[in-house]
Design goal:
Layout lengths: L1 H21 L9 E2 L2 E7 L2 E6 L3 E2 L7 H20 L13 H28 L3 H7 L8 H4 L6 H6 L6 H13 L8 H27 L19 H27 L13
Antiparallel strand pairs: 1-4, 2-3
Length: about 270
């Protein structure tokens, strides 16, 4: 901002100097000029002719022209000094292409898994399959430390097709790309949907464990009464959560695609 204000001061000073010179006659008698004339009698026969040299005399600069040009120049500097930079050039967006290539494949693959694989599991009430589909990778063990990559590849392969580690972490990081020093409205919308999806995934995991007898239910959990919910009740709630999660995923995609540069392919909805 100090550099912009200095530029504004410098421009105003130069305008003051030019004021004393702008209204002096500038004679250019004797200068010859040559102009082009386009004879456009027909669209298919265009001829360019050179007119004869002419002698011109530049008239005095008018006060109106001078002050109009000065006002335009000053306005440009003031605008540059006071206007907040466009978010298009925010630091986060400087790496948008790299973030797009890094994170969107995982987001898109997660969406494909959600609308196909997970949908079939929910429709069949395959609680064991649902639990695996949403499972997080195991924690690093002592055996993993002896492996070349620390067991990272093997553990990542055990993550579910729509797990937090495989999909939602990537969605969170991609959302952050659209912010600079402060969180933008676009990032907030995207992160809100990621938080919603995380909550839904946790609830679906819990319902699957309840149906498998690995977790006790009831007590008003997820809207159920005090008694232990039946598998039919669990199945109904699971389907409701699946629909809710699909809508949240689509809202995330809508926010991500909004204002996405034309060189980047828009992300597909479910």
């Amino acid at each position: 901002n100090m550099q912009r204000l200095f530029g504004l001061w410098l421009l105003l000073w130069s305008c003051a100097v030019e004021t004393s010179l702008a209204f002096q006659p500038i004679s250019t008698t004797g200068r010859t000029t040559c102009c082009q004339r386009i004879n456009s009698q027909s669209s298919s026969d265009v001829q360019v002719e050179l007119s004869k040299p002419t002698t011109t005399t530049t008239s005095l600069a008018t006060r109106e022209t001078f002050f109009l040009q000065s006002a335009i120049a000053v306005a440009g500097v003031v605008t540059a000094a006071t206007t907040t930079p466009s978010p298009v050039y925010a630091r986060g967006r400087a790496t948008l292409d790299q973030a797009y290539d890094r994170y969107t494949p995982r987001i898109i693959a997660g969406g494909e898994f959600y609308k196909k694989n997970l949908r079939d599991l929910v429709a069949k009430n395959d609680f064991e399959g649902i639990k695996r589909a949403l499972a997080e990778p195991p924690k690093k063990s002592k055996e993993d430390r002896a492996k070349p990559d620390g067991g990272t590849t093997e553990r990542a392969a055990q993550a579910g097709g729509f797990s937090d580690a495989r999909v939602l972490v990537a969605a969170d990081l991609f959302a952050a790309t659209f912010s600079d020093n402060s969180v933008s409205a676009k990032t907030k919308k995207m992160k809100d949907e990621v938080a919603t999806l995380r909550s839904i995934v946790e609830k679906m995991q819990s319902i699957s464990r309840q149906a498998l007898g690995e977790e006790s239910g009831g007590g008003g959990l997820f809207g159920f009464g005090a008694k232990k919910p039946s598998k039919d009740e669990l199945s109904k709630k699971l389907k409701e959560l699946y629909i809710e999660g699909g809508n949240s995923y689509n809202r995330y995609i809508f926010a991500a695609n909004d204002g996405l540069p034309v060189q980047l392919k828009k992300l597909p909805f479910l």
